From TrEMBL:
Keyword hit for Hydrolase: yes
Domain Glycosyl hydrolase family 13 catalytic: 16-347
SMART domains assigned to the protein according to its UniProt record, in alphabetical order: Aamy
Top-rank taxon: Bacteria
Protein name: Alpha-amylase family glycosyl hydrolase
PANTHER family: ALPHA-1,4-GLUCAN:MALTOSE-1-PHOSPHATE MALTOSYLTRANSFERASE, GLYCOSYL HYDROLASE FAMILY 13 CATALYTIC DOMAIN-CONTAINING PROTEIN
Lineage, uppermost ranks: Bacteria, Bacillati, Mycoplasmatota, Mollicutes, Acholeplasmatales
C-alpha cells in the first residue's frame, strides 16, 4: 500500500459511467440530472471512462475505443467542452459526490498530439511504432525511458486535479513504471492530498505474458506501493469459474481469503461483479434469488466496491466499447436497487474498515462473512446458491433482527436456517 493510504477507503462505493452510453445525449451536462439518483444509491465516486478525444487512425468500430486517446490535455468534443466538464465537477461536488477519471498512460492513438510533437517518446519494434500486446492494434505504446514524457503526463494530471478531479483510475497500471506512479502521486498530493489512486491491476497470467516477452510488469504488491486500491483481478479467474458453474463457491472464497496474508495489512481491493471489460453479472446469473444474494455479498467483501451503471437494475447486456450502445436504464429491478442502497450505506460502518474479517466456509452454496472488534460484531449470510438448509454462524444462540429486511432469524446450536434473501446481523458483544 502507499504509505499514506487510509483504510477508511475500504468503505468507498464507486459508480462507473461510460458516458457515451449512459444518457441519450452522452454529454457531461446530461449526466448532471442523474447525479442525485447516483448519490441516493449510496455512491461516493462517479468514475468516468476516459473523457479525452478519441483517435481516428486505426479506429476500432465506428466511434472508437475511449482508451485510444488523442490528447491527454483535452476533452472529447462529443461530450462537451472543458467548461461543461467543470460544470459537471461542480455539480457532483455540490451533490456530495467525487469524480474519478480514467488515465491511460501505457499508450495513445496512432494520431495523438503527443506522437506528432514527440515521436521519440514512443516504443518501436524494428524501427516501427508498435504495441506490446498484439490485439491492441488501435493504439501504440509509449516509451517511459524518456524523462520528458514523465513531465508531460504528470502535468496533464496536474491540470485535471486543479480543475477539480478527485481521483484517477489508471489503466493497465502495472505495465507503467512504478517510479513514474510514485512521482505522479507525490506531485498531485501537493494539489490535493486526498486524491484517490485506483490501479487497474492485471490478471496474473497477463502479468507473466508481459514479463515473458521481456517487458516489465508489476505484481499487485508492487502496484500497491504507489496506489490506494487495486482491482481484484488476481482472483478474477476463480470468480469467473464460480459464476460460470465450473467450480464451487468455496474455491473463490478461499482464493479471496489468501489476500489476507499475501498483501499488506492495510490492503484495499476493488470488489466488483462486472465492469466495462467484463460481462454483466446478470449475464452469468439468471436466477433472481442468486443475483440478489451475490449483489449483497459484493458489499460485504473486504475492500471498496464498484457498481457498473445499469447493474443496479439487473441489466444483462454489456455496452459495446467501440459503438454507440446505450444502457437501458429503464429496466427497474427495484429489489436489487434497494439492496444496493441499503448495503452501500451499511458499508460506512467502521467495522468494514478496521474490524477483524473472517470468511466462514460452509458445506452449502452460501457465503458467511463476519467483521468484529472488541465491542461489536456483524455477520452477513448470502444464499448465493438459492439452496436450503442450515449454515454455521459465529454468534451466540438467540433471536436476531435481519437489518436488511423486516424479519427475524433464530440461531440455535450455532446455526441458522437459510432464507431466500440476504441476512445481515449486528450484535453488541457485551450483551450477547
Amino acid at each position: 500500500m502507499a504509505k499514506d493510504t487510509k483504510v477508511s477507503l475500504r468503505s468507498l462505493n464507486f459508480y462507473q459511467v461510460f458516458l457515451r452510453q449512459h444518457t441519450q445525449e452522452g454529454t457531461f451536462i446530461s449526466l448532471i440530472k442523474d447525479l442525485p439518483r447516483i448519490k441516493t444509491l449510496g455512491m461516493d465516486f462517479v468514475y468516468l471512462l476516459p473523457i479525452h478525444p478519441i483517435g481516428k487512425a486505426h479506429r476500432k468500430g465506428s466511434v472508437g475505443s475511449p482508451y485510444s486517446i488523442q490528447d491527454y490535455y483535452a476533452v472529447n468534443p462529443e461530450f462537451g467542452t472543458e467548461a461543461d466538464f467543470k460544470t459537471l465537477l461542480d455539480a457532483a461536488h455540490q451533490e456530495g459526490l467525487k469524480v474519478m477519471i480514467d488515465v491511460v498512460y501505457n499508450h495513445t492513438s496512432h494520431d495523438a498530439v503527443l506522437l506528432n510533437e514527440h515521436p521519440e517518446w514512443y516504443y518501436r519494434k524494428e524501427g516501427k511504432l508498435a504495441g506490446k500486446v498484439g490485439d491492441w492494434w488501435d493504439i501504440t505504446d509509449l516509451d517511459f525511458s524518456h524523462p520528458g514524457l514523465w513531465d508531460y503526463l504528470i502535468n496533464a494530471l496536474k491540470n485535471w486535479s486543479i480543475l477539480g478531479v478527485d481521483g484517477f483510475r489508471c489503466d493497465v497500471a502495472p505495465v507503467v513504471p512504478q517510479a513514474f506512479w510514485l512521482k505522479a502521486r507525490q506531485e498531485i498530493s501537493k494539489i490535493n492530498p486526498d486524491t484517490v489512486w485506483l490501479a487497474e491491476s492485471i490478471h496474473g497470467e497477463f502479468c507473466k505474458y508481459i514479463r515473458d516477452m521481456g517487458f516489465e510488469s508489476m505484481s499487485d504488491s508492487e502496484t500497491f506501493e504507489a496506489f490506494d486500491i487495486c482491482y481484484d483481478y488476481d482472483i478474477h479467474g476463480d470468480f469467473l469459474s464460480y459464476v460460470q458453474g465450473k467450480s464451487p463457491l468455496n474455491d473463490w472464497l478461499k482464493a479471496m481469503f489468501k489476500q489476507e496474508y499475501i498483501f499488506p495489512k492495510n490492503y484495499i481491493k476493488l470488489r466488483n461483479l462486472e465492469n466495462h471489460d467484463q460481462e454483466r453479472i446478470a449475464h452469468w446469473i439468471k436466477d433472481p434469488v442468486r443475483l440478489l444474494n451475490i449483489t449483497g455479498l459484493l458489499f460485504f467483501l473486504k475492500g471498496a466496491t464498484l457498481i457498473y451503471a445499469g447493474q443496479e437494475y439487473g441489466v444483462d447486456h454489456r455496452p459495446d466499447l467501440f459503438e454507440v450502445d446505450k444502457v437501458d436504464m429503464s429496466i427497474k429491478h427495484v429489489e436489487i436497487r434497494n439492496l444496493i442502497h441499503r448495503m452501500s450505506h451499511l458499508k460506512k460502518d467502521s467495522l468494514f474498515q478496521v474490524g477483524v474479517y473472517q470468511i466462514h466456509m460452509q458445506d452449502k452454496e452460501a457465503a458467511v462473512i463476519s467483521y468484529e472488534n472488541k465491542n461489536s460484531l456483524t455477520v452477513g449470510i448470502f444464499n448465493v446458491g438459492n439452496t436450503q438448509g442450515e449454515v454455521k454462524v459465529n454468534v451466540p444462540d438467540g433471536t436476531y433482527q435481519n437489518i436488511l429486511y423486516p424479519n427475524q432469524v433464530v440461531v440455535k446450536d450455532g446455526k441458522l436456517i437459510l432464507q431466500e434473501k440476504p441476512i445481515v446481523l449486528f450484535a453488541i458483544k457485551q450483551t450477547v
